[in-house]
Write a structure and sequence with these properties.
Elements: H1 3-8, H2 34-41, H3 56-68, E1 73-77, H4 80-91, E2 97-101, H5 106-113, E3 122-126, H6 131-134, E4 142-148, H7 160-169, E5 173-177, H8 182-185, E6 195-199, E7 213-217, H9 219-233, H10 239-249, H11 252-271, E8 276-280, H12 290-296, E9 303-308, H13 311-321, E10 326-327, E11 337-339, H14 351-356, E12 363-367, H15 373-384
Parallel strand pairs: 2-3, 2-4, 4-5, 5-6, 10-11
Antiparallel strand pairs: 1-7, 6-7, 8-9, 9-12, 11-12
Helix pairs in contact: 3-10, 4-9, 13-15
The structure holds ligand LCS.
The site of ligand LCS has 18 residues, from helix 4 and helix 5.
InterPro entries: Cys/Met-Metab_PyrdxlP-dep_enz, Cys_met_metab_PP, PyrdxlP-dep_Trfase, PyrdxlP-dep_Trfase_major, PyrdxlP-dep_Trfase_small
Cofactor: pyridoxal 5'-phosphate
Keywords: Pyridoxal phosphate
């Protein structure tokens, strides 16, 4: 099947043959006899046992997403953060070392600077773009190399192929957060990356109605993580959210195409506007990581960040002036969202660290939706004025 067909196709429900799967809102599953129960717990019978250990809606979702990201398996979590922290806690132990990129989502950065330290794991933050820049920071204790590409919110890129090659050579696993592009526009596993994580809250769901996370990888990574992280830590996605997410995914290509088309037009207009100092958008001709983009992205995506002349105050004023765009955090919704990273999503990162990651106090993040582009622009132009 071609990609769009893979997104849309549903499996007939084995129960009553319903076109769309029913929601299996059940905490537990009945065993016909004690022997079947024992076989299921021993992994000798494929049936379900208890919804923390597996549920038909969650399984259907995991199978679809594994195929969309070209992985052998997928795990669904109750949030993007549960997926990310589950990976680290599943893979690492005391004494291990992580190299993480400096430009990360605020809570991921906070987890790596605070929570993970309590478990005796060291983290070095490095602004690498290539394997060559990463290599000097890998030690014999380095088990994981972690980054976002594009990064939140500055949209800087990392060359996945070269980073994956060096990390593999040194015995470290690579984890990439692919939230900003979704599997429709980028597939890290095809570039040699070991593990992909998503905040499914964003483009995959697309309708702003749930919080969820996904981890996609090889069987030898997913299977133990399912047993240890999901079973023992229990940050699982609910059947209802799995069902909603599955339905959202079926229109990913159409939503992403439209948002991206709108973003391309808006980024160009913003770049020519006299109130704007700088625009970060991979689709602009002067985008600094153009060569990396061409190697690994199928499109620029639909996130735009821009720095206004006048800094913090002008940024706040702009957000209070827009009427069509919604002032809210999150991203990847069908409706356009606007927010101010320095005071919102990345406020938890100290100002000095934010500046190192390129997050200016006047930076505004714009998640472009699928509305009529002229309406979005009219509103933005009015607010910029
Ligand atoms: N990774 C990235 C790149 C994110 O942007 C977020 C959330 C997460 C992981 C965490 O996912 P969650 O647990 O929220 O599902 N990003 C947000 C943002 O930029 N605004 O609000 C949340």
């Amino acid at each position: 099947m071609n990609y769009s067909t893979k997104l849309v196709k549903v499996n007939k429900d084995p129960g009553h043959g319903s076109h769309i799967s029913p929601v299996y809102l059940t905490s537990t599953f009945v065993f016909d006899d004690a022997e079947i129960g024992a076989k299921r717990f021993a992994g000798e019978d494929p049936g379900f046992m208890y919804s923390r250990l597996g549920n038909p809606n969650v399984r259907e979702l995991e199978e679809k997403v594994a195929a969309l990201e070209f992985g052998e398996g997928c795990l669904a979590f109750s949030s993007g953060m549960a997926a990310i922290t589950g990976c680290f806690l599943g893979i690492l132990q005391a004494g291990d070392h992580v190299v993480a990129h400096t430009a990360l989502y605020g809570a991921t950065h906070a987890f790596l600077t605070t929570t993970i330290k309590k478990f005796g794991i060291d983290v070095t933050f490095v602004p690498f773009k290539t394997g060559e820049e990463l290599e000097p920071h890998i030690t014999d204790r380095t088990k994981v190399v972690y980054f976002e590409t594009p990064s939140n919110p500055t949209l800087s890129l990392v060359d996945m192929e070269s980073v994956a090659a060096i990390s593999r050579q040194k015995g470290a696993l690579t984890i990439v957060d692919n939230t900003f592009l979704s599997p429709y526009l980028q597939n890290p596993i095809l570039h040699g990356i070991d593990i992909v994580v998503h905040s499914a809250t964003k483009y995959l769901s697309g309708h702003g109605y749930l919080i969820g996370g996904l981890v996609i990888s090889r069987k030898d990574i997913i299977d133990p993580m399912r047993k240890e992280v999901q079973k023992n830590m229990g940050a699982n996605l609910s059947p209802m959210d799995a069902w909603l997410l599955y339905q959202g995914i079926r229109t990913l290509h159409i939503r992403m195409d439209r948002s991206q088309e709108n973003a391309q037009i808006l980024a160009q207009r913003l770049a020519n506007h006299k109130a704007v100092d700088k625009v970060y958008f991979p689709g602009l001709a002067n985008f600094e990581d153009k060569n990396i983009m061409e190697k690994q992205m199928k499109g620029p995506g639909a996130m735009i960040s821009f720095i206004l002349k006048g800094g913090y105050e002008t940024g706040v004023k702009l957000m209070n002036s827009v009427k069509l765009s919604t002032l809210a955090v999150s991203l990847g919704d069908v409706g356009t969202l606007i927010q101010h990273p320095a005071s919102m999503t990345h406020a938890i990162i100290p100002k000095e660290e934010r500046e190192k990651a390129g997050i200016d106090d006047g930076l505004v993040r714009f998640s472009v939706g699928i509305e009529d582009v002229e309406d979005i622009w009219k509103d933005l132009e009015m607010a910029l004025g």
